[in-house]
Amino acid sequence: MTPEVVEAYGVRLRPFRIDDAADVVEGCADPMTGRFISGLPSPYTEADARAWITQGAPAAWAAGGAAYAVADPATDRLLGAVGLGQAVAYRGQAEIGYWVTPGARGRGVARAATRALTERAFATGTARLDLLTHAENAASQRVALAVGFRFEGVRRAANPTRGGGRHDLLAWVRLADDPSGPTPRQLPDLPEGGLGDGTVTLRRLAPDDVDLMYGLHTRPEVVANQAPPVPPERAAVERRCRLAESQWLTGEIARMLILDTASGVPAGSCGLSVSDPYAGEGSLGYALLPAWRGRGYATRAVRLLAAWAFGPAGLARLAAATMPDNVGSQRVLEKVGFRREGLLRGRLPGLAGSRIDDLVFGLLPEEFR
């Protein structure tokens, strides 16, 4: 590939110039950029920017990759960068990456630049592009999906963490002959950010919901109804909240809070996981804080979740399981139309090597009440 100027989708891709240095510093010295691109110098200085423009970018081109400045077509002012690296010519593959200056975020710049360079790469012979994201970088994952990349899996401990250690990367891939347009999602976003029936509202779990989730899921009666019956560590709950949006985007699980609509006060949590994507089956679960039990909130939440699962999420069947003695939860499921399907003996791990039975319920769309 040669460094020709590309104008498409409202952005200009051009070679870097020395007068881009100040904008490169603004973008690369930003804490969010440094968090998700751990290999950048820290602190990032003008000398680093000049070294990139005069040495780093030319080296990327010489190695068979690309290093474009992303500019505003009207002003030619730098908005970010997009490039190709890790090129393997005989495989026809490369890795695409990007960053955007703080002032240009939220304007679709990364999406436009990634789409433009992806099309150019495929037009010049590339067969496969990888896009690797930090597991907590949901904004970048949304870019990948919008440009037609598909989630392929987790590369464990694939990248060094700034300050020591290593972290996972999520691999998103697009092939030259993949369909154009955004990648269809197994778990779409909630309409207008939430589901509601006038009494109960469901919204996506967020990173700042840690205290609520830790308090709920360490309650003895909640712990008793999970397998194994061991309360989670706070660090595990923090990670669950931080990764909630990413796991939603990859189609693994949609985690939500249950809120009282009138007050906005959290009443509990619920979730829908895609247990068998090929069969179109999902599995749901829920838990309520004591003050909200016995008021129909769990039933309302399950109805909202089931309607969304059979509607926008396009699932064909829902499953739910309870401990055999959890009669209250079983009544909730039956009110929504779930039918008892059987007892799976010793299915789940218990304490000290013991096993726990699992009572399974199922729901089809025509049975939903």
UniProtKB/TrEMBL annotation:
Gene3D superfamilies documented for this protein: 3.40.630.30
PROSITE patterns per record: GNAT
Domain N-acetyltransferase: 11-176, 200-366
GO CC aspect terms: cytoplasm
Native species: Micromonospora costi
UniProt keywords, alphabetically: Transferase
GO molecular function: protein N-terminal-serine acetyltransferase activity; protein-N-terminal-alanine acetyltransferase activity
Coiled-coil region list: none
Protein name: N-acetyltransferase
UniProt key word Transferase: yes
